[in-house]
Specification:
The protein is α/β, with parallel strands linked by helices. The chain is built from 9 helices and 5 strands; from the N terminus they run ααβαββαβαβαααα. It has helices at 2-9, 25-36, 54-69, 104-119, 140-146, 159-172, 179-188, 193-210, 216-226; strands at 42-47, 73-77, 93-97, 124-129, 150-153. The longest helix is centred in the last third of the chain and has 18 residues, at 193-210.
Length: 227
């Protein structure tokens, strides 16, 4: 039981392979295309609400740049006072998550970083925010920089897509997940996809441990005992 609790507390390592694209196929294709080529000067801004998968994508691309392309990459999770501290020589890739959180001074630093990245023809500048650039409450010159390259909205998965993703993940893990179990999880648990996948994994282990098929009563017992 302790192991199941541990499994639930651990985040799945984000990769492009375990990102569920839904209606975001074009963005995923653009990122894979970048990783498969040696292009430079790529500026990408993606936006979407909480739970849409923005951080998953940014972390995935940062790790893939290092692992696959042997690039140097700098990853920033923004707050009001983010410093964007880097050496004089910029890394190959700069990843900036939650740009909408930046305060006035931090926005100036990001503006200067954008200009330097363009001068040095950085391989990739990949930024996320909660809204389209024009709706961000940021400096006008920063908004202009965010619109320099490709801009994508990240669409959150529909309930149907989340259910299909959970069932597909279960099949790939060697067990079946009934429709009513998916519906129950979507109705009563957090709707974040990474959390739901961890629930499915732990439920599969619980089912195997008890040698019982996954049913709605088993799910309720699992949630009561483990959570």
């Amino acid at each position: 039981m302790k192991q199941l609790l541990l499994d639930l507390s651990l985040e799945n390592i984000p990769t492009l392979e375990n990102f569920i694209p839904g209606r975001n196929v074009e963005l995923l294709h653009a990122l894979n295309e970048f990783l498969a080529t040696s292009s430079s000067g790529n500026f990408i801004y993606c936006w979407g609400g909480s739970g849409s998968g923005k951080s998953h994508l940014l972390k995935s691309v940062s790790a893939a740049c290092i692992r696959l392309k042997h690039y140097q990459a700098a990853y920033f999770t923004c707050d009001q006072y983010t410093e964007f501290e880097l050496n004089d020589d910029l890394p190959d890739c700069i990843i900036v998550d939650d740009v909408d959180r930046l305060g006035p001074e931090a926005q100036i630093k990001l503006f200067n970083l954008y200009n330097q990245a363009r001068e040095e023809c950085l391989a990739l500048f990949f930024v996320s925010g909660k809204t389209a650039p024009a709706q961000l409450q940021l400096r006008r010159d920063v908004i202009t920089r965010l619109s320099w390259g490709l801009v994508y909205q990240i669409h959150e998965l529909t309930d149907e897509e989340k259910g299909q993703a959970m069932k597909g993940h279960a099949v790939n893990s060697g067990f079946e997940l009934p429709e009513e179990v998916c519906d129950y999880l979507l109705r009563y648990e957090k709707r974040d996809m990474s959390y739901l996948i961890r629930i499915v994994d732990a439920l599969g282990c619980y089912s195997l441990m008890l040698q019982r098929p996954i049913t709605l009563p088993l799910l309720r017992q699992f949630l009561h005992e483990v959570l």
